[in-house]
Amino acid sequence: MAKRPDRLVILSRNVFDATGAEAFDGFVATEGSRIAKVGRRGEAASYVNGATRVIDAGDRTVMPGMTDNHTFFTGWALLHLGCDLSGAHDAETGVSRLRAYAETLPKGSPVFGHGWNAVDFGLDSEDLLDAAFPDVPVVAFTKDRDTCWMNAAARERYLFSPDECYAEKIWRMMADYLPLPQMRGLYHEYMHMLNARGVTQVKEMAFDDYYGFADVMEAMEAADELTVRVSMMNQPVGRGMDLAYGRAARDRFRGPFVSFSGFNRMTDRSIASGMAELKQPYLSDPTSRCAVPVEWDLIERELFAADEAGFRFSLHCQGDGAVGHVVDLYERCRRDASGRLVNRHAITDMELSDPADLVRLGAMGGICEVYPQIQSLDRRDDLVGMVMRQVGHTRFERYWMRRKMWDSGCVVVGDTDLPLMLPSIGESIYCGCGGHFDDGGCERLENMLTIPEMLVAWTRNGAYDCMAEERLGTLEEGKLADVTVLQADALHMDPVDARGVNAALTVSDGRVVYDELG
């Protein structure tokens, strides 16, 4: 790693070091890649005099760099990959653009695109695509990745359809697009987007063996190109959990920016679809507690094997039945003398939870990876209407139980399922503290976190989830210099006013990597 020459001093009336709940009028001084001092403003003079840059942040909140604990570069890349179809409003124009783009590729290469408008292209658009590209696979995603335009050659090669083009279905395509030369440049754009939102670390879901992109990560770290630290989690989709790969990756990736810590799996799916596993039947279908059975036998075998081998596991659950089932499994995993999980297993999403299961999870020091911004995807009445149809008012009281998670001793961390959402501390406060939906309506305020707790979830707790708390997550002397300056005093504002707040300045490893204050 290159030597960092900068000595920065950041002054603010709201330094939040994430070691406690109160901010103070003070400063953060960095030297090279480390934090040299955090203190009260009156102690800053000697550091200011020796600084290469002094940044007066006013009353803006200064805090540790943020960690997003559930991200998918593989999904974000699809929003930017290949031919841009966003200005094409008919199939003929789309085909013409794809043909021109294909001319820039090696002959026979798959053709990818983004920004496809499914509404404008008409019912015959797939026939036109087949005629233009009878042999070469072509796939172009909509801007929300909900569906895609694809030809018969792509269906045959990748074995998915526009009706099911989510990550767990498109894994065969990853082997074709992750090794592309342009992916390294796209990863720079990805990091810039994260840095602009105050994020300096992610827990990245890497499918199978990451289809060659692990080599790119290693090369970028060696070239000192990374501005976001990456803790990789393997998500098996093309084959079962590969412990041999996990051991090799754990040994291989041990640098300050790239590491490997364990495995991730889906269990159930959404309550809206009826595929979440519930403890009590759906109101919409009293014969069902889950429309599609969860592969619990497979999950149990893999979890216990990973736990024995010293890997951590995160399991994605949405229904209270799935959450309770996972807590049962975690209680059978290795624990230390105080009863805490040895390998820091986590549960992701947790749309609906039983309070008793949260108490059990908290007693084990379990990690709850929640989506604080999730309400931003819906209008209040739409979401409430769905919940009333599916599970009713009483169970709605157990939605997004972050308050109970926190109070039960669970380690609550922030994540986005990126690209489902892009990380935003302001939107996290707006939704996850204020209980607001996209249209401003509110619900379940009793289940929300306070603003200081939200900042801790995105900083100190996020670092713990990445097993990096000894070097990141708080502003303390000797820790790595990952620092975020927000655009406002987020600690003391009404959540309703916080939605647009993101980073004004971001420091990664002692380098300023995003700057609105310069």
UniProtKB/TrEMBL annotation:
Residues 53-514 form the Amidohydrolase domain. It comes from the Bacteria. Pfam families: Amidohydro_3. Keywords: Hydrolase. InterPro entries: Amidohydro_3 (IPR013108), Metal-dep_hydrolase_composite (IPR011059), Metal_Hydrolase (IPR032466). PANTHER family: IMIDAZOLONEPROPIONASE, PROTEIN LONG AFTER FAR-RED 3. This is Amidohydrolase family protein. It comes from Parafannyhessea umbonata.
